[in-house]
Amino acid sequence: MTEELRPERRPNSPLFSSGPCAKRPGWSLENLENACLGRSHRSGEGKAKLKAVIDKHRSLLDIPEDYRIGIVPGSDTGAVEMALWSMLGARAVTMLAWESFGAGWATDVVKQLKLQNAEVVTAEYGDIPDLQSVDWKKDVVFTWNGTTSGARVPNGDWIDDDREGLAICDATSAVFAMELPWQKLDVVTWSWQKVLGGEAAHGMLVLSPRAVERLESYSPDWPLPKVFRMTKGGKLIEGIFKGETINTPSMLAVEDALDALGWAGSVGGGQGMIARTSANAKVIEDWVAKTNWIDYLASDPAVRSTTSVCLKITADWFVALTAEEQTAAAKKLVAILEQEGAALDIGSYRDAPAGLRIWAGATVEKSDLEALMPWLDWGYSELKTTLGINS
Length: 391
Prior knowledge:
Number of strands: 14
Low-confidence stretches: none
Distance between the termini: 14 Å
Shape: globular
Strand order of the largest sheet: 1-9-8-7-4-2-3
Helix content: 25-40%
Mean pLDDT: 97
CATH architecture of the largest domain: 3-Layer(aba) Sandwich
């Protein structure tokens, strides 16, 4: 047995889930005591809080003044779907997919919207497509960071400044953790539940002037549900981007978002959040470099995620297993760590190759990741003992 190797120190917080993600350090329900509860979200106080969420995002992330920022229903998924159903069809579109969510958007466009001029370009988990071959005469839909694959686009250099199509970016695991070139992006979506560690159900939608022009000049052939409609009489409904949400939001979740944004400001704003994330990712990087049984799912360092860090077990005995056996073994490792209270929810995504997925976003403390690494080694030794592996 591996009892003598058991680490002495556990993480203060074992919360390493990739969504919903860990709350900010020091979070408590008491932080939400000023929530606008029992009041209309259209009251003066309600609208002021919703507008504050928008304004704080603009300030912390340096979003251009001529970009609209809205709070929309359905978390990041709702925000992406609003963009796809409202804007696509005006020209040909390329769907870039290298993980589960990008594949989901491609399915919606091909099988639900049934666009005949849609091209789907894919890559395996841990890799990304050839970005230099993207045709910017088309609209392009992509995830900035593949939450389920641990692979991200390295930068925005591949996006044409003089593009004819729209750059539509699902950035839900990237915002507040990675540099985004706002001027190269026309639609950007994310949710509070990722890097901010906020609550789910509400999404953020950012539109460039080019995206607004598309909305005001193009009407799709299909009907749009109320929660997707951003125009009326051919003009943008500006209220959506001033805190007048399409449907009723949770004012408790809004208060939680304000709390998270306030904390983000206290650690240096967007740049401070990026620095915290990068430092967290470096802890895992250093451990992987000296560990002979694990490696990144994304082999190219330039495209490795710093938030949803996806790892694969590379030991010969594990590689020799069938896919089903690998999944079972990886789940056993996750269960061992959970039982010890060392890490919760770090299994790979259900559609991804068997392995581990560790969230390293800004709300995770570096010291907790440092405490986790020895537990991963111990858990692996315990797994081998449990399975009777001697190698």
